[in-house]
Amino acid sequence: MSQSYDRGLIEDFGRWREFTAGMWAWVFHKFTGWVLIGYLFTHISVLSTSMQGAETYNQTLSGLEGLALVRLLEVGLLAVAVFHILNGIRLLFVDLGVGLESQDKSFYASLVLTGVIVVASVPTFVSGAF
Amino acid sequence: MAQRYSSFSSGSTAWLLQRITAAFLVVVLAFHFFNLHFVHHAYEIEFAGSQARMQNIGYFVTMILFLLTATFHGVNGVYNALVNQGIDGAQKRIAQVVLGAAALLLVVQGIRVANTLAGF
Amino acid sequence: MSTQTPDTDSETEQPSSTSHQERRMAEKQARKEQREADEAAAANEIQGETVELKVFRYDPEIEGKEEPRFDSFTVPFEKGMTVLDALIYARDEYDSSLTFRHSCRQAVCGSDAFFVNGSQRLGCQTQIADLDGPVRVEPLPHQEVVKDLVVEMDHFYDQMESVDPFFDTDETPDGEEQRQSRENREEIKLSTRCIWCGACMSSCNIAAGDNQYLGPAAINKAYRFYMDEREGENKRQERLEIIEAEHGVWRCQTQFSCTNVCPKDIPLTEHIQELKREAVKQNLKFW
Questions:
Q1: Does the beta-carbon distance from A104 to C58 stay under 8 Å?
Q2: Of A97, B85, B15, B1, nearest to C245 (Cα)?
Q3: Are C60 and A4 within 8 A, CB to CB?
Q4: Nearest to B12 among C205, C212, C283 (CB)
């Protein structure tokens, strides 16, 4: 058997311009998922400072919240969480077999809605940091 | 409890639980974000306030459930993402052990923190 | 050209008329040669509209083709021309070593699935007129390339075989026909259309990453038999066990790429989802 040529996954992501809605949804859902689970571990670690006493807890939290970078990261976290929730709802509908004909439209809707919610929340999130 | 977060013999149970926890998390995560960024502001959070919230037994139980469902949903999600990537054999076993251990650690530490914040 | 030399009076007329004649003849000859050269050149050129075909070439056994490359072919465009027509023209007129599978040329054999301008299509089912030029034809992604546009299909066939793609009624009925109601036929009608072309499997990212994933075509095949009311209960349960294994239906992430590329318009994702729900229901019943 002559050797055959395996083009591998690298070639895949080079084709991102040709991705369909369903593919983008899958890629983003995975990416936001990883970010959120990473955040969960970080969050519990930060909250663990409470076990060192109220002072430590307060200082850690206000220290972090004082950093502009942290505020921006929180906006990022919001975007990630909102997208994962909205696309997740879309996936729940798909799993129930409802609205399969407009599955690509509902993906675009989740993107737009995520954008809207994030933009609307930016003032509250960054107030007092700048 | 530990076995729940590691391997699953029937794929359908994990699949269903992932969806059920998803439905629960949609509501509770949205509520959590809203509560801690809009009702109270993140930069105003301090021990006394956290304690006041956690001493409400309903809120406390919700937070514990939140922790459990989020851990399951997240760790199961990561595990599935890895299986989709194509891990197999030894790699899969390692992933199961590491993820199972991480999940257990997270839950235990989370409950300890919850108890501390509530003052129990 | 002197007309003043009396000696060459008669000569002057002749050379001048001869040279004039010669000149005219020479010009006529030159024009004739130019015309013939033009015609010869025109015969080599293609008249009318053409389309540029860029085809993936690879052959591990030929020097110069060990590294994949793209060859360009200029093919005359005719109304109603398909990608397959263009490839056959290229092979017949330009390079007889261009290799690709094809058979029925009417979208029923499933041999000529290619990656055309970035999506999985059947060559015989894709109109050149519908595509933006230049038309890029590549072998199906996520599968090993044997030569040019020919890919390894063994893995695909293995996955199809693994769901037992045959009818099994447990017991043969004595004497009577096995009847299927019209409603049941309607339910499974779309799933019977699969031509085993492999486009769906090639479009699925999970099938690309997880080698053990059954794939949309195999699961659809299982669906076609599982949902058929004439099938025996034992076989149904066996089939369910195959598809609810770890690398069965649960690997599907509802990416919908399979549904998008299926040349027979089978709602593959929907069928996979129905089987997931079925598996959940069966397991819940057990509790």
A1: no
A2: B15
A3: yes
A4: C283
Going from the C-alpha of C174 to that of each of C167, C171, C177, C178, C275, the distances in angstroms are: 17, 9, 8, 10, 31
A–C: how many Cβ contacts below 8 A? 66
- Mention the CATH class of domain C50-150: alpha beta
Kindly indicate the confidence band of residue A34, based on its pLDDT and cuts at 50, 70 and 90.
very high
Is residue B20 one of the residues assigned to a domain?
yes
Which CATH number characterizes residue B113's domain?
Answer: 1.20.1300.10
Contact at CB, C274 and A20, closer than 8 angstroms: no
Q: Are C73 and C94 in contact (CB under 8 A)?
A: yes
Measured in residues, chain B has a length of: 120
CB nearest C58 (choices: A5, A17, A100)? A5
* Chain C CA closest to residue A15: C118
d(CA C276, CA C272): 6
B3 touches chain C (CB under 8 A): no
Q: Taking the mean position of all CA atoms in its chain, how far away is CA A116?
A: 15
Give me the amino acid identity at C33. Answer: E
Angle between helices A54-66 and A21-47 (to 10 degrees): 140
Q: Looking at the partner chain, which of C210, C279, C280 has a beta carbon nearest the beta carbon of B86?
A: C210
Residue B69 counted as domain residue: yes
pLDDT in tens, A73-105: 999 999 999 999 999 999 999 999 888 889 999
- Written as six digits, the tokens of C164 are 């037992």
Contacts of C18 (CB under 8 A, 6+ apart): none
Q: Contacts of residue A104 in chain C, CB cutoff 8 Å?
A: 256
Cβ neighbours of C213 in B, within 8 Å:
84
Domain that holds residue B30: 10-118
Domains annotated for chain A, with CATH where assigned, are: 21-126 (1.20.1300.10)
- Spatial separation of the C-alpha atoms in residues B101 and B83, rounded to whole Å: 18
Q: How many CB pairs under 8 A join B and C?
A: 41
Helix (H, G, I), strand (E, B) or coil at B89: coil
- What residue ranges do the domains of chain C occupy? 50-150, 154-286
Which chains share 3+ C-beta pairs under 8 angstroms with B?
A, C
Concatenating the DSSP letter of every residue in C26-86 gives HHHHHHHHHHHHHHHHHHHSPPS-EEEEEEEE--TTSTT-SS-EEEEEEEE--TT-BHHHH
Determine, yes or no, domain membership for B3: no
Q: What is the tally of structural domains in chain B?
A: 1
Per-residue pLDDT of B55-113, as tens digits, reads: 999 999 999 999 999 999 999 999 999 999 888 889 999 999 999 999 999 999 999 99
Topology of C154-286 in CATH?
Fumarate Reductase Iron-sulfur Protein; Chain B, domain 2 (1.10.1060)
Rg of chain C taking only CA atoms, in angstroms: 32
Indicate the helix (H) or strand (E) that contains B38: none
Cβ–Cβ gap A94/C276 under 8 Å: no
Chains touching chain A, criterion 3+ CB pairs below 8 Å: B, C
Share of chain B residues as helix, strand and coil, in percent rounded to the nearest 5: 85, 0, 15
